[in-house]
Automatic annotation (TrEMBL):
Gene3D superfamilies for the chain: Cytochrome c oxidase-like, subunit I domain (1.20.210.10)
InterPro entries in alphabetical order: Cyt_c_oxase-like_su1_sf
Coiled-coil segments on the chain, per record: none
Domain of life according to the entry: Bacteria
Keywords for this protein: Membrane, Transmembrane, Transmembrane helix
TM ranges: 12-32, 38-60, 72-95, 115-135, 147-165, 171-191, 212-229, 235-257, 293-312, 318-339
Signal peptide stretch: none
Listed name of the protein: Uncharacterized protein
Length: 349
């Protein structure tokens, strides 16, 4: 948004409440407890998100740049608030049932509001600004992003209402709208890639590109699940798990890991070496982490994720276990690189 954050104090309070709420919620889920612990956790998270949303909206209000990227971010934080309020409602409904719709169906509503409304829209808003910048792509038409915004934000509410009312045609129509919006976004990224000045992609951008390949998987799976094909009926549960895993692990996690190598080294580099630029020979931001470790991390992640999808879809527990080990190793390598970046000490010639 190219303006100063409205309040760092609000951000710190929001972070603290989210950290406390997440730990308490994890404990409640672990013990399958729907009593006071879950309510305290839920309220803590709702307050945290409310402060975050207020901070984001006030920051957006102070910006004069009325661009589609900002619109996506504003929309995403509103969907986030809806998601956590829906989650708190589900928690109350578990211990004191008052909603007539099946809890499983309500969980689908909650999950898609979070995955598509919050995660996907936030990613579109941020990445449509950052990725062309990292690839040095100029004059990319944003009309496809406008199309994505409207199709996603028309299709998603229709899908949520249809899920609540158990109206199948509405759910299918919603899926078509949302998928069309995501395809429009991917088309925008492809156009940015074709217009890039920087031909050679670094490891961070390669993993980011891989995440968008993974995104195509749930776009196919959603229609496989909605069409109720007879011979696939017995695979509905594993395919549903594969669908969620492809979004959360394959797309979101992989993209965040890839973009970490593009943003965090620069942030740390700027903090460590500010005031020294132009005076001495300095390392580059990419020198703050081990590229060999990053390459090994990406390969382990890609292979592990592939095994995970195959293992889940075929209900092969051995493959799932192997994938878990590979993904754990990948995340360990990732964390080693993160520590290397964060703990970097000044060096110059």
């Amino acid at each position: 948004m190219e303006v100063k954050l409205y309040s760092e104090t609000l951000a710190k309070i929001s972070f603290l409440l989210m950290a406390i709420g997440t730990i308490l919620l994890s404990l409640a889920f672990w013990h399958f407890s729907f009593g006071p612990l879950m309510f305290i956790a839920g309220i803590s998270i709702v307050i945290s998100v409310s402060l975050f949303v207020a901070n984001a909206l006030l920051t957006a209000h102070s910006s004069n740049k009325n661009v589609i990227e900002r619109t996506f971010i504003v929309s995403s934080v509103i969907w986030l608030l809806f998601t956590v309020l829906a989650g708190l409602t589900l928690a109350i409904n578990l211990s004191h049932p008052f909603l007539k719709v099946s809890h499983v169906e309500l969980l689908k509503l909650h999950a898609h509001a979070g995955l598509v409304g919050w995660f996907v829209q936030l990613i579109i808003g941020v990445s449509s600004k950052l990725l062309p910048m990292f690839m040095v792509s100029h004059h990319v038409n944003t009309k496809k992003l406008n199309f994505s915004f409207y199709t996603i934000n028309i299709g998603l509410p229709i899908g949520i209402i249809a899920l609540y009312l158990q109206y199948k045609i509405g759910v299918v129509f919603s899926a078509i709208m949302v998928v069309a919006g995501i395809v429009g976004y991917l088309s925008f990224l492809l156009a940015s890639y074709k217009k890039r000045v920087k031909k050679q992609l670094d490891i961070g951008m390669k993993q980011s590109a891989l995440s968008f390949v993974f995104l195509v998987i749930p776009l196919f799976l959603i229609f496989t699940l909605l069409l109720n094909i007879d011979f696939l009926n017995r695979l509905t549960l594993p395919l549903s798990v594969a669908y969620g895993s492809a979004i959360v692990i394959g797309f979101i996690t992989s993209l965040v890991m890839g973009q970490t190598y593009k943003t965090l080294p620069f942030i740390v580099w700027l903090k460590v070496y500010q005031g020294k630029v132009g005076k001495v020979i300095l390392p580059l931001p990419k020198d703050l982490y081990s590229e060999k470790l990053a390459i090994a991390q990406v390969w382990l992640f890609a292979i592990g994720f592939g095994f995970l999808l195959i293992g889940i879809s075929t209900t092969n527990t051995t493959l799932v276990m192997v994938s878990g080990i590979l993904l754990l190793l990948s995340v360990a390598f990732y964390n080693l690189n993160i520590l290397k970046i964060v703990l970097h000490k000044p060096t110059n010639k």
